[in-house]
Design a protein that fits this description.
- Chain A: It comes from Prunus persica (Peach).
- The complex is a heterodimer of chains A (237) and B (712).
- With 237 residues, chain A is an alpha+beta fold.
- Helices cover 31% and strands 20% of the residues of chain A.
- In chain A, strands 1, 2, 3, 4, 5, 6 and 7 form a 7-stranded antiparallel beta sheet that branches.
- In chain A, a hairpin with a 6-residue loop joins strand 6 and strand 7.
- The two termini of chain A are 14 Å apart.
- Chain B folds into 3 domains: 142 residues, Ubiquitin-like modifier-activating enzyme ATG7 N-terminal domain (Cytidine Deaminase, domain 2), CATH 3.40.140; 141 residues, Cytidine Deaminase, domain 2; 285 residues, Rossmann fold (3-Layer(aba) Sandwich).
- Helix content of chain B is 32%, strand content 19%.
- In chain B, the strands form 5 sheets. Chain B has an 8-stranded mixed beta sheet with strand order 19-18-17-20-21-22-23-24, with helices on both faces. In chain B, strands 2, 4, 5, 6, 15 and 16 form a 6-stranded mixed beta sheet that branches. In chain B, strands 7-14-11-10-8-9 form a 6-stranded mixed beta sheet.
- In chain B, strand 18, helix 12 and strand 19 form a beta-alpha-beta unit.
- In chain B, helix 3 crosses helix 7 and helix 19 packs across helix 20.
- The N and C termini of chain B lie far apart (88 Å).
- The relative contact order of chain B is 0.08.
- Classes of the chains: A alpha+beta (237), B alpha/beta (712).
- Chains A and B meet through helix 2 and strand 6 of A and strand 1, helix 1, helix 3, strand 6 and strand 16 of B.
- The structure holds zinc ion.
């Protein structure tokens, strides 16, 4: 692809190629971190007489404990749960068992994050979906997530008026997840590739797309890309 | 535990639960679409993995896949793939009750005992050797409150109680228990076991280390063969979810029960397998020795040992609760979707769009017919959330086709009141709307009332006055000209933003009324109350200096509003309009409002016309802000016009407004009862004698015939 005439978007086939390359590289340069895995999804409509569609799916990185994402003494937001019916008084139905360890110290409250990279057919770019939850499964609200986001995140969100967090239905899970809205992605991706002379010369490497993309998007949510991954644009060709 | 004295009781860290949001989503969907009120127990699958963090224990996790598929077609591919090293399947059972009372009334001890019995039987019939995951069988009770999207739940991880309890001889990090060679071989064996899809999710196993320091991991069913070799170290290993350095995790309990009842071993060497970054971590893993006394009665088959295992909630024996209203309540989802839509519009095209002013804006719609319905919908699309509809009619059979808030159901049994039906419909479209319906007739000039009805009419006048007072914007959308008179006057008096839409057969008029004649005076309540334009009073003054207020609907008139319905044929009442007209006019009316709200001068903004020399307004983000828009479907044309206020206007001139201020209801009664009162008062009578006609600067003179008929 010629970088100058390129509009910053990606076809779904290219996304697949780029996703595979990205997951491989991640494993290569970031082995201490859990791997990104490709989650295949059956197409929503049976592919009847249409030509067989590309394999659909998304990249997934789950149960990530972001640095600093532990909360002390989290108060479960049981806002709508009827407290009275939960705490009707303790029930003494079990014999005392002295082989059961009774933990006295309230151990560290840990929050986990799940990240999915999903291809958007309408914007023709990858979209980062994410969610956070306490270790017992209670989801984190956006304001709680914002407290976990790295300090540079607010800056990125502010500077790029196209990058903002919205809550929308996850295209495959059909539940609301947070996402970084993709409406400016193609523009800044184009700028990103054009600003790099060497890349502008060799053309746009599809394999490198997701690495470059996540190097920007990751800043918002605190996913760091190893430097070697960025600096190694051609290793997959 | 006091050191390794050999006397301390072996204490196990309880299993902890984690329930993914997706589990509750699927349970709700199954409950609604498949189970109904059937509350029989449901087999479910939990997932766990060895502890992989020195500070955090691994939890037994329920995911959407823990439940049967909720799609109607049976999925061909089994959803739970075996062999996932991070998702060892554990069988469980779910008792989901239909009421919170049933939830609390469940026989918890009995349910736990029933599950413990299954474990006990699997130990004795050997099934636990084939599929060791049954040793960690669990139980979940729940009540899903689908109206509030809240879930009450309680896990139990049944553990067979050894009586007397096992005692601990010693417990150390595994790294201290093996030679270097052994440790190396052991780590390699573990990594192989964990990376093979055949064994990765097998949570209980045997660890054999031969005299050559060679380690091997074996299935439980291979126990007999492991026994035969001499000089071998044999350890009973399991995936330990617990991270604690001095306690093994819960799964060891039933493992010990199996070991002692099947193999009759008194001194058990066990290994708590834990890992780090996907590899065996012998520093985190523990090796210990426990002494077991086979409890009395364990050899008698019908006997089932006691069991414990209900999970505590912050140290207390109470259930847990979770609310997912944020992600499941359709109303909340609709709100956030609607907000997002508007925010996108702001982000992409209109950075100055003031969404808060729209969502807090109170709009009064007089009339809930074709125009009222359509205006209400368009207002909601712009993010307006507070809408009051005034109408005293009922939905007729012919209405639903043109009046977009009604359906045939609203017409049955004599027809629902439009004010009521419209509000219900708005709430169905967008549950978060704050819509109110007011059933009220609008008093009209020239429609004399008998004295016994005077009180009712005056009450209506006062109600209308209060309604206008308590709203920010008034839309005049009634189907007669004279029903617009009183609201026009009241709006001029309180200086409210007022928008009129009126229809002919194929032409329409949409206009905003100018500010009232006393809008700059300091006693004007509306001015102080109106927060939409902060420096309104200043503007009012300059406007007064300029002397040119924009006109109202009646400023165009040379005749005072009279009873237009009584002496006309149906045709002339203009109830016949081209169906596309009302949506066009309604949409323009709302867009005009949004323009006013975003104009720095608000209600005082001058009227722009296309190609206006007034460049200030054309640079507004929303474009020009016209005073009047007239359109004709016959010519598919539309034009913007400006008409200034008339000194003899029967609704907004200073004579009329000050007369109203002076005499109040008495003035209104006179206007209602005496057809020429208003004309006499404003000098219109005089004017009519001299003037043949008075028109606005409407270039196109060919299509004026329905001008006096611009109503529904
Ligand atoms: Zn007027």
């Amino acid at each position: 692809m010629d970088a100058l005439s390129w509009d910053g978007t990606l076809t779904s086939r290219d996304f697949l190629v780029s996703a595979r390359a990205f997951a491989e590289k991640w494993k290569e340069f970031n082995s201490a971190f859990p791997p990104w895995t490709w989650v295949p999804c059956p197409p929503k409509q049976p592919p009847c007489h249409l030509p067989q569609l590309l394999q659909q799916g998304y990249l997934s990185l789950e149960k990530i404990c972001l640095p600093g994402s532990s909360k002390k003494g989290h108060v479960t937001s049981q806002e709508d749960v009827d407290e009275i019916s939960l705490t009707e008084g303790e029930e003494e139905f079990e014999p005392v068992d002295n082989a059961t360890l009774v933990e006295t110290n309230n151990s560290l409250q840990v929050c986990y994050y799940d990240f999915h990279i999903v291809y958007s057919d309408s914007y023709r770019v990858p979209v980062l979906y994410f969610r956070g939850y306490y270790i017992d499964g209670q989801p984190l609200a956006l304001d709680e997530i914002e407290k976990d986001l790295p300090a540079c995140s607010a800056k990125v969100l502010l500077e790029s008026k196209w990058t903002f967090i919205t809550q929308e239905e996850h295209p495959y899970l059909n539940r609301p997840w947070y996402k970084l809205h993709p409406c400016g992605t193609s523009e800044w991706m184009k700028l990103l590739f054009l600003s790099d002379d060497s890349r502008a010369k060799i053309g746009v490497a599809v394999e490198q797309y997701l690495v470059s993309w996540l190097s920007v998007v990751g800043q918002v949510v605190g996913i760091r890309i190893p430097f070697e991954m960025l600096n190694n644009p051609k290793s997959c060709n | 535990m006091e050191g390794s004295s050999g006397k301390s009781i072996l204490q196990f860290a309880p299993f902890q639960s984690s329930v993914d949001e997706g589990f509750w989503h699927r349970l709700s969907s199954l409950k609604l679409n498949k189970f109904g009120i059937d509350d029989s127990p449901i087999p479910i699958t939990g997932f766990y993995a060895p502890c992989s963090h020195s500070q955090v224990s691994n939890h037994l996790t329920l995911l959407a896949e823990s439940l049967p598929s909720d799609s109607s077609e049976e999925s061909e591919v089994p959803e739970i793939s075996r062999g996932n090293r991070n998702r060892c399947s554990v069988p469980g059972i779910l008792y989901n009750t239909n009421t919170v009372e049933r939830f609390h009334g469940l026989d918890k001890q009995g349910l736990l005992k029933a599950e413990a019995q299954k474990i006990w039987e699997d130990i004795h019939n050997g099934r636990a050797l084939e599929d060791s995951s049954v040793l960690s069988r669990f139980l979940l009770i729940s009540f899903a409150d689908l109206k509030k999207w809240s879930f009450h739940y309680w896990f139990a991880f049944p553990a067979l109680v050894l009586d007397p309890p096992a005692t601990l001889v010693n417990l150390r990090p595994a790294s201290q228990c093996f030679s270097l060679e052994e440790a190396e071989s052991l780590s390699a064996a573990f990594n192989e076991w964990r990376n093979s899809s055949l064994t990765a999710d097998v949570p209980f196993f045997l660890v054999q280390i031969d005299t050559n320091s060679h380690a091997a991991i074996k299935h439980l069913k291979d126990w007999e063969t492991c026994q035969s070799a001499d000089g071998h170290k044999l350890l009973f290993g399991f995936y330990d979810p617990c991270h604690l350095p001095n306690n093994p995790g819960w799964p060891l309990r039933n493992f010990l029960a199996l070991i002692c009842s099947r193999w009759d071993i008194k001194s058990v060497h066990f290994l708590c397998y834990r890992e780090n970054r996907g590899f065996a971590d012998l520093g985190l893993s523990l090796v210990g020795e426990a002494l077991i006394t086979v409890p009395q009665g364990w050899r008698d088959h019908p006997y089932v040992p006691n069991a414990v295992g209900w999970e505590l909630n912050k140290g207390r024996k109470i259930p847990r609760g979770i609310s997912l209203a944020k992600s499941m309540d359709p109303t909340r989802l609709a709100i956030s979707a609607a907000d997002l839509n508007l925010k996108l519009m702001r982000w992409r095209a209109l950075p100055s769009l003031n969404l808060n002013s729209l969502s807090s804006l109170k709009c009064l719609l007089l009339g809930a017919g074709t125009l009222g319905c359509q205006v209400a919908r368009t207002l909601m699309a712009w993010g307006v959330r507070r809408i009051t509809l005034v109408d005293n009619g009922r939905v007729a059979m012919s209405n639903p086709l043109r009046q977009s808030l009604y359906t045939l159901d609203d017409c049955l049994n004599g027809g629902e009141l439009k004010a009521t039906a419209a509000v219900n419909s708005l709430k169905r479209i967008f549950p978060a709307v704050e819509a109110k319906g007011v059933v009220m007739a609008i008093p009209m000039p020239g429609h004399p009332v008998p004295s016994q009805e005077e009180q009712t009419v005056l009450d209506d006048c006062r109600s209308l006055h209060d309604l206008i007072d308590s709203h920010d914007v008034v839309f005049l959308l009634t189907d007669t000209r004279e029903s617009r008179w009183l609201p026009s006057l009241l709006c001029a008096n309180t200086n409210k933003i007022t928008i009129t839409a009126a229809l002919g057969f194929d032409s329409f008029l949409v206009m905003r009324h100018g500010a009232g004649p006393f809008s700059s005076s300091h006693d004007s309540k509306a001015e102080a109350a109106n927060s939409l334009s902060a420096d309104m009073s200043n503007l009012g003054l300059t406007d007064r200096d300029g002397g040119k207020r924009l006109g109202c609907y009646f400023c165009n008139d040379v005749v005072a509003p009279i009873d237009s319905t009584s002496n006309r044929t149906l045709d002339q009442q203009c109830t016949v309009t081209r169906p596309g007209l009302a949506p066009i006019a309604s949409a323009l009316a709302v867009e005009l409002l949004v323009g006013i709200l975003h104009h720095p001068h608000g209600i005082f903004a001058e009227g722009d016309v296309l190609n206006s020399s007034n460049s200030e307004s054309s640079e507004q983000p929303l474009g020009i802000l016209p005073h009047q828009i007239r359109g004709s479907l016959a010519q598919f044309s539309q034009m913007t016009l400006v008409g200034h206020s008339s000194d003899s206007c029967t609704a907004c001139c200073s004579t009329v407004v000050s007369e109203y201020r002076k005499k109040g209801m008495e003035f209104i009664l006179q206007a209602i009862n005496h057809p020429t009162y208003l004309e006499d008062l404003t000098g219109l009578t005089e004017l009519m004698k001299s003037a043949s006609s008075f028109e606005l600067d409407w270039d196109d003179g060919t299509d004026e015939d329905d001008d006096d008929c611009v109503e529904v």
